[in-house]
Amino acid sequence: MTLYEFGLMLVAVLTAVGGQFLLKLGAVKLGRVNADNALSHLVGGIITTPELIFGLALYGLSAALYILLLTRVKLSVAGPSVAIGYIFSVLLGYFFFKESIPLSRVFGLGLIVCGVILVVWKR
Of 56, 54, 51, which is closest to residue 26 (Cα–Cα)? Predict the structure, then answer.
């Protein structure tokens, strides 16, 4: 993976993580879904919540960037490489939503990092 391709992959991942972050903000704003409010959440809530609209837009942009990446990089490299998004998601959850990060999750994230390094490493 060249530096340009790595940059493209990183931007695709960061836009996807930004989309996840905005979707979580929108979901918190919507409130918990149950049988009584599911239809109103699906019909009215999602399209009137700006965080959800922008989150979906970022996901769309991320998908377009990923397609561009796939024109340059093998799927067997690009697919596993986007797993670094998990690290950013966990950090956003920790810093913005005060979610805990148990030691088992830290260990799992470390394994992901090692795996991504092995996948993109050129000999």
Answer: 51
pLDDT tens digits for range 59-86: 999 999 999 999 999 998 898 889 999 9
Largest CA-CA distance found in the chain, in angstroms, rounded: 57
Long-range Cβ contacts of 7-14 (<8 Å, 24+ apart) = 8/65, 8/68, 8/69, 8/72, 9/69, 9/73, 9/78, 9/81, 9/82, 10/84, 11/65, 12/62, 12/65, 12/66, 12/68, 12/69, 12/82, 13/62, 13/82, 13/84, 13/85, 13/88, 14/85, 14/88
Which residues lie closer than 8 Å to 68 by C-beta, 6 or more apart? 8, 12
Q: State the DSSP code for 72.
A: T
Model confidence pLDDT, tens digit, residues 104-114: 999 999 999 99
Give the angle subtended at the CA of 74 by the CAs of 79 and 113, to the nearest 5°: 40
d(CA 4, CA 2): 5
Could you tell me the pTM of the whole model?
0.85
